[in-house]
Amino acid sequence: MDNKVKVDGLTFVPYLTRDEIQKQVERIGESLRKDLEGSSPVFLCVLNGAFIFAADLIREIGINDCRVAFVRYASYEGTSSTGHVRQLTGLTEDITDKDVVIIEDIVDTGLTAQTMIEDIKKKNPRSVRFVTLLHKPESSKTGFTPDYAAFEIPPKFIIGYGLDLDGKVRNLRDIYVIEEE
Ligand code: 5GP
Q1: Is the Cβ atom of 109 under 6 angstroms away from ligand 1?
Q2: Annotated catalytic residue, options 56, 99, 108, 174
């Protein structure tokens, strides 16, 4: 794990290692494997940030009779939420009577999650579960609580393992937090 990561004039320090992430992916994967027994779920990966987490989690869950679909939402600019959630790519997959598992990278204010779940429920799924890699409970503006969260973290800006700073550094294998002044 690199000691510090510098990007766009900001410095980030190590926060969660790839091993810690993998352990949590295994834990959540096992819970979902049990909870989805006998189901043919649709995993809905929220682009762009969740693509790495979703790839690891879906393989960990290990249900072959599944489908994978993608949606894209945006609410962040730089290191803070704009408060406006925009759907950039909608769902094309038919999810009628399906068990849908939304896979997100991070829940901050909860606005994206809330908007997304409203959109999905209009398409008549049998059930909707919400999984997130990271949850910042103190930032909540909606009271939204994910069904599964790998880590609960304080309201600080995070990068790596799919999470970006203005589109960059998603490739980092570990997770980094912005350095305090
Ligand atoms: P919310 O709608 O819950 O406020 O924000 C959710 C979205 O904001 C996430 O999907 C992610 O794109 C972005 N976001 C929130 N917190 C962070 C963070 O600490 N780091 C990064 N890179 N993105 C974040």
Answers
A1: yes
A2: 108
Report CA 106 to chain centroid distance, whole Å: 5
- Whether 79 is in the pocket of ligand 1, judged by its Cβ within 6 Å, is no
CATH architecture of 20-168: 3-Layer(aba) Sandwich (3.40)
| Global confidence as pTM | 0.94
pLDDT per residue of the chain (181 residues) written in tens, 0 to 9? 668 999 999 999 999 999 999 999 999 999 999 999 999 999 999 999 999 999 999 999 999 999 999 999 877 666 776 767 777 777 888 999 999 999 999 999 999 999 999 989 999 999 999 999 999 999 888 989 999 999 999 999 999 999 999 999 999 999 999 998 7
Peptide bond before residue 171 is cis, with ω within 30 degrees of 0 = no
The residues, ordered by sequence, that sit 6+ positions from 171 with a Cβ below 8 Å of its Cβ are none
The domain segmentation of the chain, as residue ranges, is 20-168
